[in-house]
């Protein structure tokens, strides 16, 4: 049953919401002061995001949450960009060794990441209230009044909007959400397909599919690293993922992602096989066979960031994390990473704020402290989100080029650049999320 009041209400039990609760606990907030709700009757058992980068692992380690996640995932040393069997460039993650204890990209399904965070919360006595869908929220003298679909109303001092890209909390707090370059709300604009210079179709739907592969797997498809192939079909991501825990055969799952077939209503093995064959560029007997599609989905790339990540509503405070605060292309696997890092930071700041809130300080001193700490959080996280939006737009544009001339020119440029370790190491650095000045901790 939902409590009548709480100190921190986290709306959304996706990776960002769960991680924010873990961070609050790690920074000394008591389980009884945290309430987590989610609209869904059960967690989504879908892989969705599959990569966790070094800075995110560092942040998870700082709240004691990295160990089981690191143990479960594959440690990918490289993200290779290939034209058939030729490696054009590769993000060289081992080059991060002097800056992080995690010099790799961790390949793990989002469902596993969520499950491991959930287990940590359960052990510490935090339950997820489901299904509890927030429908309304108003500021009051002492906080916020939050209403649920079932008719319950809860008082909360702080509300964390971790409720995804169509965030109800963001809308109820009247925080605009828009593409930083066009100023448009991605959920408001019509999905008209547009063709941009050099044939890149910015609204073309993309496919993601988790599959089992059979037959021969050639050496050009790494069983431990991220593989991205460029071909006339655009890009094809082939990423190995740990076997499902309940699979007695322990079969490696492969995440495939590529452009959807124009006009097609469903994702078929035939289409995936066609793109795989063209991407790998080897005879049939050396090309893996798409054996089983375990899960698949189609989505369109959207980019947007909230105008601010915190808002005061009368005596209450709302803060945003994860997709509620920013969305962008999945290129480079940044989405969930940014959200987890927001959540770790917000947990730390809210823990400090709740401590100060319980002192004898004056109301105006408390208000000033909240404005200072959450204002800094908002500025820092928002500028990171804008950086990531820029980087992922560029990557999406480069991988989506369609004309033969543009593709050939791009491949030559990448091949030339990929001959220098400076570029390959720099690429790993950008993807990792590490900041200048970071040093690996002594183990
Ligand atoms: C098909 C698909 C594929 C993706 N692939 C990738 C990928 O390859 N790489 C990558 O980095 N990212 C990928 N993403 C994005 C990644 O999944 C998100 O960045 C990540 O899930 C964001 O986490 P979150 O916790 O912010 O939000 P979410 O995971 O969206 O969780 C939000 C939660 O809030 C709950 N909620 C919503 N509204 C309410 C309400 N009113 N009241 C209560 N609860 C509510 C929802 O039920 C949900 O559980 C993909 C997303 C999708 C949909």
From TrEMBL:
<dbReference type="InterPro" id="IPR036188">
    <property type="entry name" value="FAD/NAD-bd_sf"/>
</dbReference>
<dbReference type="InterPro" id="IPR050641">
    <property type="entry name" value="RIFMO-like"/>
</dbReference>
<protein>
    <recommendedName>
        <fullName>FAD-binding domain-containing protein</fullName>
    </recommendedName>
</protein>
<dbReference type="Pfam" id="PF01494">
    <property type="entry name" value="FAD_binding_3"/>
</dbReference>
<keyword id="KW-0285">Flavoprotein</keyword>
<feature type="domain" description="FAD-binding">
    <location>
        <begin position="6"/>
        <end position="355"/>
    </location>
</feature>
<keyword id="KW-0560">Oxidoreductase</keyword>
<keyword id="KW-0274">FAD</keyword>
<dbReference type="InterPro" id="IPR002938">
    <property type="entry name" value="FAD-bd"/>
</dbReference>
